[in-house]
Amino acid sequence: MTTTDRPDTQVIVVGAGPVGLLLAGELRLGGADVVVLEQRATPTTESRASTLHARTMELLDSRGLLDVFGTPPNEPRGHFGGIPMDLTLPSPYPGQWKMPQTRTEALLQEWALSLGVDIRRGHELREVSDRGDFVEATAAGPEGTVVVRGGFLVGCDGEDSTVRRLTGAEFPGNDAGRELLRADVAGVTIPNRRFERLPAGLAIAATRDGVTRVMVHEFGSQAEPRTGDPEFGEIAAVWKRVTGEDISGGTPLWANSFGDANRQLTRYRSGRILFAGDAAHRQMPIGGQALNLGLQDAFNLGWKLALHLGGSAPEGLLDTYHSERHEVGRRVLSNIRAQAMLLLGGPEVEPLRSVLTELLTHDDVRAHLAGMISGLDIRYDVGGPEHPLLGARLPDAGLTTGEGPVNTAQLLRTARGVLLDLSGGGAALPDTSGWADRVTALPAAPEKDGALDGVGAVLVRPDGHVAWAGAPDTDGSGLREALERWFGPSH
């Protein structure tokens, strides 16, 4: 590579929505230089997604972000295809938490900027090229054409991803057959409706701070290709046919529609170009799962890409982003397809809804679906001998260290790996000083009868998932293998 071809930055992130901003911050925590290209000149004023699930709240807590987010309103009850269900599971943040996307985006932008992320608004991507040693992105900016070179490029630019289109990435699946029309309307007074199935269609309405969000689907209607958002008059007309209520005199603040399209990239990585969030998978945003799935993509990718760029990553670490998150995405898209059928289907789905309603009275069924929706049941294949914690998220637990009491989330604030010696000196761990630049080793006493009581030691990845757990081997080989697999060779 010539001097003039040297990258301007290590990572180019395309898209300054919540996923792109979280990824950019994670990369900076790992020491990577980041440029974010965003075609919008100003942040969005549309709060499309407003639900944060338990696992996402845990991830935000592990970076200290809830200190600035505050504690959003909590709702323990969610739904599966419009059928009410309790989402409560063991977690510091059970249920779902309501945060307007505008605020989520604003707070993540503030955090990313505080870490030194270079966010360039008003830059519309026109060309992308993987040059082998680097990626070149050409964008139309406020002052003309801009060319940015980076070691990697990550498309976080939504369901209509420009990066995906420009690279021709394979995106199999189904286009939308049905859709929900949605609008935020001021100046109307109508009853709140929670997934109300009426003879003519599905109606949803909720009023907060004088603004009513309405969503409506007319049974039997088909989604047509749109070149833009629907007019409010169309939404008001459908609402009246379904509910008999006239909302046409209200003031629409914004309107859009979303269909039941269901697509997923064949590969989340192609050379130096990767994808996260809706750019990697397109699904109906039922119950907030789309936003949460994307934020968790970013959390999985950030530390791996930063470690790779730092030169310490083991062979194949970056490819585990695809293998881990593609399977999670496939499973989420499958449950969303099932929910879309239950939500938008007409009278023909009523028998199925009745059966599922009955099944949800059994707590093991409820817990299974709640774990899927909340992201709390995710368990990655991390290798190593079987252990109840292996591959799962590090459970919330209180610990006592030399510096006093802490909880497990606080141990991950620096986005490094953590090796917890919980044996109380009863079992000697092998020397891990060769990984001290990537992993913090810490003796700690677990709270009695807590989730970590009786566990000899755990190795935790920066994303909070357990990479190794148990009593050390006689020679410590199992722990060293896990350290090498996830954090590279000893230095």
TrEMBL record:
GO molecular function, one term: monooxygenase activity
Keywords annotated in UniProt: FAD, Flavoprotein, Monooxygenase, Oxidoreductase
Superkingdom to which the source organism belongs: Bacteria
Cofactor: FAD
Domain FAD-binding: 8-334
Pfam families for this protein: FAD_binding_3 (PF01494), Rng_hyd_C (PF21274)
Keyword Transport included in the entry's annotation: no
Protein name: FAD-dependent monooxygenase
Organism: Streptomyces noboritoensis
Species classification: Bacteria, Bacillati, Actinomycetota, Actinomycetes, Kitasatosporales
